[in-house]
Amino acid sequence: MMAHFRCIADLRGQLTESPVWDDRRKTLFACDINGQKVYEIDLDKGPLREWSFETAVPCLGLAESGRLVVSLAREIILFDPETLERQTLWDGYDEPETSRLNDGKIGPDGAFWIGSMDARPQREATSKLYRVTADGKAEIKAEGFEISNGLAWTADAATMFHTDSRGPWIDRYDFDVETGSMSNRTRIAYLDEETGRPDGGACDSDGNYWSAGVSAGVLNRFDRNGKLLDRIAAPVPAPTMPCFCGPDLTLLAVTSHRLGASETLEAAPQSGGIHLMQAPVAGAKIARMKGV
Where in the sequence is the active site (predicted)? Predict the structure, then answer.
């Protein structure tokens, strides 16, 4: 499938990730993990505000209160972009210093789901997937990953997708929105450098799973059983995560990184920015964190 993209935020971030559509503010939030920043972006006007943090900022989500749920390298905080107030939500992360938190998203159960990653060059499958609730408690839901990634839920909240970027594979689970439990783990796809290692993910309203093929410069769309439905060329070599956005969730924002070779970046100077396309289908709405 061919798609027309336009750059809405030429951030040139080192590792831009975790785009989240705020349906109240009508803006997009995203982070630069290595740049230690969070951005607010208008889809037409571009970047509006930015905030700096003291550590890596792997991901973020929205709270019912309007605050942001922001993951730092080894803790999760609540951040009010209007007052700049910060409040620790969870600081019980006790994995080795060579690891950090990574991809995360608010689940339809109202909890913040977040995985970790082994940050060493020679990674081991020691990382975990956590479910963090408003009372500041975290439960380990799964473990044994090199880089936990790609969290997304279908619109009916009955299915959860999860990936390991270095597996590299995509798993599907049955999801119970009342209890936040996951079951019937099913491996639906194995990927490689050419097809695109699975980075961040999103679900559309048809129940399909969109995966940023970060190593191949593509967005891959799979059905629930892992059949490849579409392969869309991204406007930059390393897309990191798709996010359905806009008033009716029919636009698709894609973040990217600029960690490649200098000649690659010279050919794609807007790497590390955010690009927008018209989606062929609407997206599944992302929940807000309950109780905060």
Answer: 199 (proton donor/acceptor)
User: In 3D, which of 171, 167, 256 has the Cα closest to residue 209?
Assistant: 171
17 in a known ligand binding site: yes
Q: Is 178 annotated as a binding residue?
A: no
- DSSP string over 39-87: EEEETTTEEEEEEE-SS---EEEEBTTS-EEEE-SS-EEEE-TTT--EE
The whole model's pTM is what? 0.96
φ/ψ of 72, rounded to 5, equals -95, -175
- Give the pLDDT confidence score for residue 169 in this predicted structure: 98
Q: Which residue has the tokens 């392969």?
A: 231
| pLDDT at res. 228 | 98
- Annotation-wise, does 199 bind a ligand? yes
Known catalytic residue at 199: yes
Helix (H) / strand (E) containing 265: helix 262-267
Catalytic pick among 118, 164, 171, 199: 199
Q: Which of 258, 252, 221, 251 is closest to 236 using CA atoms?
A: 258
Identify which of 287, 202, 200 has the alpha carbon closest to the alpha carbon of residue 250. Answer: 202
Domains of the chain (ranges; CATH) run 5-278 (2.120.10.30)
The verdict on whether residue 102 carries a ligand-binding annotation is yes
Amino acid 263: pLDDT:
80
Element (H, E) at 262: helix 262-267
